[in-house]
Amino acid sequence: MGKISDKKGVQQLLQLAKFYGLKKIVVSPGSRNAPLSISFSQSHDFECFMIPDERVAAFYALGMAEQLNEPVAVVCTSGSAVLNYAPAVAEAFYRCIPLVVISADRPAQWIDQGDGQTIRQVGALSNHILAETSLLETFITPEDEQFNNSEIERVFSACLGNQKGPVHINFPFNEPLYGTIELSKLVESPLPIAPIKNDFPLLDESELQKIKHSWSTAKNKMIICGQMAHQEQLQHILSELSGDSSVTILVENTSNLSHRRFIHCIDRTLNSISENDLDSSFHPELLITLGGAVISKRIKSFLRKIDHLTHWKIGFEFPAMDTYQHLTKSYEIDPSAFFRQLLATQPTLNISRFGEQWKQLDYLIQDKHEQFFHSAPFGDLSVFDYFMDSVPDDSYLHMGNSSVVRYCQLFDGLSTLRYFCNRGTSGIDGSTSTAIGAAMVKPDKLHTFISGDISFFYDSNALWNQHLPGNIRIVVINNGGGGIFKIIPGPDTTAELDDFFVAKQNYSVEHLCKAFGVKYISARSIEEVDNKILSFYGPTEDKRPIVMEVFTPHEENDKQLKDYFEKVRIEKERVKRF
To answer: Is residue 265 classed as helix, strand or coil in its secondary structure?
Structure first.
């Protein structure tokens, strides 16, 4: 029989955490958090993972929570440990992922008194969490126990509300820290536990009639779908809606929505639409957005420059967020429910070819896209072309940030894959850790993670633990530095481009792989990649990840990308004829 901390506050936390659906705990080593790590690891209600690096641990938990769509906790000792959670917490905040931070702390009387591993932990994450609290370890009065009960309920309610997100539970502990009792002797708190009640509102009839009128009278309607998990019902509704010739639906692969009538590659299409009045026929008059972050900077710039635009934002996430600077109304309602109500009685359709016009342009560009790769030189682009076509069906594709996720948006998304990327804050930190955390809780799926070299080096401690699963394959595209800074405008005009932006380097990940016991494969051409792809995706005897490092020409990649955009562009005169 297992043991649990003898601290009443810890016993109460475990009881309520179980009730609110917490099952997986990522713990980093320490002494001050001993009451927590002992209790969680000894209980059969929780599965614990030991990850030494706190920054990595938080991103592991982020990947788990995203895949499971349920709370996952990270537990750390006192001091600077909790500060290492900040990048993953910010990502969870902007992605609405239920990450539960539980930090052990020193007693309040020792803060700022020169005691070791003691900092101001209360409020350390307050800018990017939905709720926080400091709990009591012991109960002197019945009100103390009620305080903890109410605070834990409040924090989990915020974490698991309609707009989910990260929360912070700070737990100051006095010594001794290692006292335990047998789980069999645990007396559970008699206090009632309140279930979390989420509302799923519908549009009231008067508002619905206004929406239907605006919808039916708008000739040019655009729907943009940002990052989200795959939703079968929404997929079906939007697929039906895409048959309306007055509607164009723009998606990125991170939306996990796909259909032959959708515009999958926004930047590729906008490359042939100028931002001046000559192409105003491509301007929507009604914009509807749903989901999270949108990667394309071009669509943001394109829509912000339109003079008159009605914009409805649909969903619970950040209702006041005005990405396109035209926000007219935000509807806090599930997107599927919104469209079901809107289309319940078929509104009168205007005669408009707006949607057809967008898709016809996309078809023409798609032809040029395919022609380009018939003779494309070896480089980042050709590597992405190969892997975007080679990732096995019915698997998960995780994309690193910066240039990686942008390259991936030039290729049509596939309904046979699920796509993931840390686009909440768009940072390069934690991409590897998030992908591996996701693979750990989805062992029945093959996971492919594509990373740039700088990002992979930055998060190399993701491989430093005993939980690496064998169902993930990692592609590191080593182009000798941060290639994004040779692509975006600005850095390439400075003399400091290579040293202070690109961070030019000539290292390989081979020795990192050896240090962490991970199989390593390298390639320097598409032919070499092709020769090794079966080995890369084949089974591993030791059930460990496999890394393939593909070296691409540092000096040529940005030139090839610019050449690509030139060659897939449709001539202005042809665009105007649509």
So the answer is: coil
